[in-house]
Write a structure and sequence with these properties.
Alpha-Beta Plaits; 4-stranded mixed beta sheet; 3 domains; globular; alpha+beta; 19 strands; Nucleotidyltransferase, domain 5; 16 helices
Length: 475
């Protein structure tokens, strides 16, 4: 840790969890749970304890004792008038046990919290051009959150030797992330509105362009953490970095990459054996699809496996697609973080297999101008679109790409580059057919900021070849 960081860390030492105070107790932000039924305690919420083998019962006793010592649980009498109980199960991973509560019935009866959770990609783009990034993680965040008396009665768990009541928010409640996001946004309203503090549930990220302001911002955050009696874990704090791992990515102010550790954990597994496993794999790969050129083309054979009418069978073409998707996940290039003051370039290309596009930007990296991708998008062609001619297909895709990338393109100068010269005539077409008229109207929203350009097919390589592009010496 740099010397400049020692002083604020010591000044606000009570912000960090210790052996004596391992868990915070956040003041003034109690969580309530409201049911959507007239009968406050429906019989479906009353459950018997799961049967446990002796090994699991011993582990369960240890977990409950730890939570009672932390002030998360308390024991309640068996003869209390109002009892809502849920069961406990124990899961094992690498020889270690974990206590898991079955709150599914309660979650079904709970009125959902509507507080917005930030979109992950939009959250990461807020770090654009930041030269210094610090991250903090609230220790067992949900369990630092107190409950109202009403919520405590609903969060009771049953084991063979008694009933316990949660005093703080447990894991497994469907609205817990929304309540926690609301609480942190309430604690740091000015910092969030100034756009240098980023909060994603219990991840807290501070970013700035100069070291002096970074120290001031860090002190402001630590001061409020101490004020509300929150605790953060020191081993998960990163105070000296120009890049860090966050939300499954390696992120800096200039570039965004895939966290290879996350990918390796999935790719080390054997090939999927069931539809459910394939759906999980495609969901994981889809999370990183903005890094993957032609994702829709590669994955289309795998998506067919998930069709309810299709039997699970790994044919030769599906195995090839699975291996190709694994390969591109492992070797996916870094993409540029958007610099909002510079214009963009949208390369589009449509073919019989699907629609593909790359959104590019030219930036100065290591004192040299470099053009690289900000994201890739792609999709398959619908059966009703397969009858379109080349001109219609390219016009269709231009409109789809504009809508898909509206977050980047709205209010930004950009060039839309295609290898179909007919697209340039779309805006000036005097007698368009029904489809062309609809697309013409959709494009007019971007007319003042967009320049349509034609690039002949033999030199229009960006939309097809950017998967091999990589940022040299990317920070």
């Amino acid at each position: 840790m740099k010397e400049e960081l020692i002083e604020p860390s010591l000044k606000y030492k009570y912000a960090f969890a210790t052996d004596k105070e391992p868990l915070g107790a956040i003041i003034g932000h109690e969580v309530d749970i409201i049911l959507n039924v007239e009968r406050l305690y429906p019989p479906l919420l009353r459950r018997l304890a799961y049967p446990e083998i002796p090994r699991a019962r011993e582990a369960l006793e240890v977990h409950i004792e730890e939570l009672m010592d932390l002030g998360v649980l308390r024991k309640v009498g068996l003869n209390e008038l109002e009892e809502v109980t849920t069961t406990i199960i124990i899961t094992w991973n690498n020889g270690k046990s974990r206590m898991v509560e079955d709150f599914r019935a309660l979650n079904n009866y709970t009125i959902p919290e509507r507080y917005p959770i930030p979109r992950i990609h939009e959250t990461l783009t807020q770090l654009s051009q930041a030269k210094l990034i610090k991250s903090m993680d609230s220790l067992k965040g949900f369990q630092q959150h107190f409950l109202t008396d009403n919520a405590k009665k609903l969060l009771r768990i049953i084991v063979h030797w008694g009933i316990y009541e949660y005093l703080r928010m447990p894991f497994g409640i469907k609205d817990a992330p929304f309540h926690y996001q609301r609480m942190l946004n309430t604690i740091f309203p000015e910092e969030v509105s100034e756009a240098w503090l980023i909060i994603y549930i219990y991840d807290i990220i501070v970013c700035s362009e100069i070291w002096e302001s970074q120290l001031t911002k860090l002190e402001r955050v630590l001061h409020k953490i101490v004020q509300v009696n929150m605790k953060i874990t020191l081993k998960k704090c990163h105070f000296e970095y120009s890049k860090l791992k966050a939300l499954g990515h390696v992120v800096s102010g200039l570039s965004l990459g895939i966290d290879k550790n996350k990918v390796a954990a999935v790719l080390l597994k054997l090939m999927t054996q069931t539809k459910k496993e394939m759906q999980s794999f495609l969901g994981f790969a889809g999370y990183y699809r903005q890094h993957i050129k032609d994702f829709a083309r590669i994955a289309k054979f795998l998506y067919k496996i998930c069709d309810q009418q299709t039997a699970y069978e790994m044919t030769e073409e599906r195995v090839k697609a699975y291996e190709e998707l694994n390969n591109v996940l492992t070797n996916a290039p870094f993409i540029l973080m958007t610099y909002w003051k510079l214009p963009l370039k949208l390369y589009i290309d449509a073919c019989g297999e699907g629609l593909g596009s790359a959104l590019n930007q030219k930036q100065i990296i290591n004192d040299k101008p470099v053009e690289g991708p900000i994201c890739f998008i792609s999709r398959q062609i619908h059966p009703t679109e397969a009858i379109y001619g080349v001109s219609q297909m390219d016009c269709l895709f231009l409109v789809w790409a504009l809508k898909k990338l509206h977050y980047y393109l709205d209010g930004t100068l950009f060039d839309a580059i295609t290898d179909c010269n007919a697209v340039k005539c779309l805006l000036s077409m005097k007698t368009p057919n029904r489809n062309m008229l609809r697309w013409q109207i959709a494009i007019q929203e971007y007319g003042g900021n967009m320049t349509l350009a034609h690039k002949s097919g033999n030199i229009h390589k960006n939309a097809d070849g950017l998967s091999k592009w990589a940022l040299a010496n990317t920070p």
